[in-house]
Amino acid sequence: MKEGTRRWILLGSFTLLLAALAVVLVFLNGGAPKLSAAEPRIEVTPEPKTEEDAVRMRTPAPTAVRTVETPRPIYPEKAVNLLVNGSPLFAVDSREAAEQLVRMYLNECAYENLDANAVLLTASVDAEISTVPADGSAEYLAFDAAFNKLRKNRSLIPVRRTVERVAVLTETPAPQSTRSAQLFFGTRLFRQCGVASRTLVFTETLYKDGLAVSETETLNTPVLSGVAQNLLIGAYAVGTDMTEPEPSEGVRGPATSLSFQAPIRGTLVGYFGLATGEARYGVDYTAFPDTRVVAPEDGTVVFLGERPGYGYIIEIRHEEGFTSRLSFNAVPNLTDLALGKHVQKGSTLATLNPLEDASECVLHYELLIDGVPYNPLFYLP
């Protein structure tokens, strides 16, 4: 074979080999030519085969969310959360601070609005209080801020307390008045001024969150019985144009076993009755200075001293409701008289002491029975 023919044969074989290699590469690439960068790529969405595929194709794929961590607040090293019934209220500096805070809050709530008639019986926190180390889940508050927050909102830590109060109830009995034939017309005599009854009433009040929710009466104790006012109104009528009353003026009093004597040896100068329109509730004696004044009957000294409208007075209480009242127009010279001393009939009580430049002394003597004045002459011999 010639040399030229051999070259052409080798060149053709090499060309066929390159063509075959190109076919193999096309097959390996999917049998389709690659799109150039300038050619747009068209994507075809396959038809859903089932309803689930349709839902899945309509639902967008979840988008990844980037989580940003919030920096944890800086608390004191021993900070704790104050828990009320297991729920965090706020964080404070330490467990000791939380305990002090609750104690101060309870003490303020316990003694709130207590007046002079109120007594605190019980006070307690009406919730479960506890502490745990602060974990950043509750707001941190300084001590004063935490205390003010509790004071402004009592429901945060409810407090239950019981307060006892005492009240004085008074009731005045209706006054009584009686017309008396022993008193001169137009005069009025209080035999009893009257006293109101008094009762102590104890109550217990239950407070929650600062508000009263119930009140119970626990004790009702009478401490003073009332006494009605007793007034005597004079009904004894005598003429007012008389210059001096008669010795037998007035109404006789009740009979008695007592035997009275005149308190002084002197001259009767004024009788029981109305004298020139003014009531005289006893008799008047005049005597010389240093004349003895004696006890009209056995009795006990119940008053020594001056009284408006009378001057100096000695009062002696006898039996059966009788009282002798001796009045001087000057301070007498007393013996050894004293309040509460028992004196015997006829014993010396004092001697008359005249006023300056007076030659005679005056003794006024009244006899009262149960507080009502009677004419002493009805009981003297």
What does this protein look like?
The structure is a single chain. The chain is α+β, with helices and mostly antiparallel strands. Helix content is 16%, strand content 38%. It contains 4 helices and 23 strands. It has helices spanning 3-28, 51-58, 95-110, 143-152, and strands at residues 80-84, 87-92, 118-125, 129-133, 159-171, 176-184, 188-192, 197-208, 211-224, 230-236, 267-270, 273-275, 278-280, 283-287, 292-294, 299-307, 311-317, 322-328, 333-334, 342-343, 348-351, 361-369, 372-374. The strands form 6 sheets. Strands 11, 14, 16, 17, 18, 20, 22 and 23 form an 8-stranded antiparallel β-sheet that branches. It has a 4-stranded antiparallel β-sheet with strand order 3-5-8-9, covered by helices on one side. A 3-stranded antiparallel β-sheet has the order 2-1-4. It is rod-shaped, with a radius of gyration of 59 Å. It starts with a helix and ends in a 7-residue tail after the last strand.
> What is the β-strand count?
23
**Structural class given helices, strands, pairing?**
alpha+beta
**Total of DSSP H or I helical runs spanning 4+ residues:** 4
Mean pLDDT across the residues is: 83
Query: What is the end-to-end distance?
Result: 207 Å
Shape field: rod-shaped
Secondary-structure element order, N to C: HHEEHEEHEEEEEEEEEEEEEEEEEEE
**Uncertain ranges:** 31-40
The Rg value, from CA coordinates, equals 59 Å
Major sheet attributes:
8 strands, antiparallel
Approximate helicity band: 10-25%
Strand content: 35-45%
